[in-house]
Every structure is written in structure tokens, then in C-alpha cells.
Amino acid sequence: MINRYGSLAAEVYRLDKPVGHSFGDVEFYRERLAGCRGPVLEPAVGTGRVLVPLLEAGYDVRGFDTSPEMLDLCRAECRERGLDADLSLQGFADFSCDAEVEAVIVPAGSFQLVTDADEARAILARFREALVPGGRLILDLDPLSDLAAPLAPARHWASGEDLLTLTVSPVETDFVRQTSVSHLRYEHWRAGRLVAAEIELFALRYWGVVEFELALREAGFTDIAISGNYRHGVAPEADARIVTFEACAGRAG
Question: Are 117 and 205 in contact (CB under 8 A)?
């Protein structure tokens, strides 16, 4: 399956990007949400790397994900800290909310897991519909230049006799559709013997800055601010490692 995040993938994610680990985004989102009193929605919440610190800061954050394994780890992280989290098994294209939210946040390029451009535009419109009028969408994207970047080398995480490894192999890069597909192989070794393995296809879509701004406007967003490297109001330069869009939801119709 594509972008499945099974049990080994979820455990690797937890080890590699533990709750609270920040690329500058945890502090950025906490600051940008200052004054937000209503609920905040985080799609593709994963193991709660960003959600948990925001809950600890007093924000009413609820999240969803398509991976039961990621959600199980997220719930465990919340229980360990005595936090009550509203988490559900949903996807970008079919999520629902009980009530409108004040903000939707999508850190760390998770929106790029939606590889069909038309579907992505429809999801942006769903985000707007989920927001109160004037509510905000804050969303990170990797730079378009990453589409041509070399893949990361094989990696490993050791704990006692256990060793988890991740090997990434290219499958396809489509510069017309701005998508990449990689083959991920996760392995769990114990005392030198392979005890479990998972193979997944990992697909991403990359966006140009102007292209995504136009998609936001088409979806009904206004007052769009574009920032580079988690410096709000500072336009991304050519070497920016992350581009953040912040936009307000206009009224339907």
C-alpha cells in the first residue's frame, strides 16, 4: 500500500521524530496559535510529535490519521502525560468534524502525501469548510527543489539487542506531475536475526510556491502569508528548507 505507515514504520517514526522533537515547527505553531481559544484540527497527526506539546500548552487540539498504528502510539504518548486527546481514524479526503474549528494545522509537509493535484485542491476546500469564518489554515510544504534531491542513505536505530533499519530506494520521479515514489523497507533485527519486515511505497507531491498560493485562493482562502524556515513574515529564499502558508478562511459563497 502507498503511505501506509504500518507498525514498524510507526515505531521508526516514533524513534526518529519523538514527541516534542522540533524542526522549529513546534515553537512556530505554538506562537502562531497564540490567542486561539477554539478547537484546532491536525490532519495526519501521526504519533503526536506536534499535537502533544500543543495540548500541554493548553490548546484544544484534536487530530486524525489513516494509520491505526500511528494513532495507537499517539494515544499512548497522551496517556503517559495525562492528556485527553480527541483522535480518530480518518483521511484527508473524507474527514468530518462535529463542529467548525478555529484553526487547521498541517506541519512537516504531511499534505504532500496527497499526490493527486485535483484531490489536493478539493481537500483545501474541505479545510476551508471546516473552519469558522476567519479561521486559519497553517500548512508546511517541502520546497519544490526536493523533488530532485538525492534520497537519504540507509538508517538504523538500536536499543539493546533490537535494531530497526530503514532502506529507501527510488521507484519513480515524475517532473511533470511533480511527484515521487520511493520503496521503503523496514526491518526489525534482534540478536542478529531478522524477526520482522515491512515494505511500503511512499509517494509525495511537491508544489511551487505560487502554484500553491493560487490553489489556496481557488479554495476560498484570503490574507495568505508565506514564510520560509519558520520565520513568520520572512519570504522563503531559494535555499529555504521549509515553506509555510498561513491563510484565512473566507465566507462560503
Answer: yes
- DSSP codes of every residue in 158-226: EETTEEEEEEEEEEEEETTTTEEEEEEEEEEEETTEEEEEEEEEEEEE---HHHHHHHHHHTTEEEEEE
Residue 3 has pLDDT above 90, yes or no: no
DSSP structure class, residue 231: B
Closest CA to 221 of 102, 95, 136: 136
Q: pLDDT (tens digit, 9 = 90+) per residue, 82-128?
A: 999 999 999 999 999 888 999 999 999 999 999 999 999 999 999 99
State the chain's mean pLDDT as an integer.
Answer: 94
Domains of the chain (ranges, CATH numbers): 7-142+207-249 (3.40.50.150), 146-205 (2.20.25)
pLDDT of 153: 84
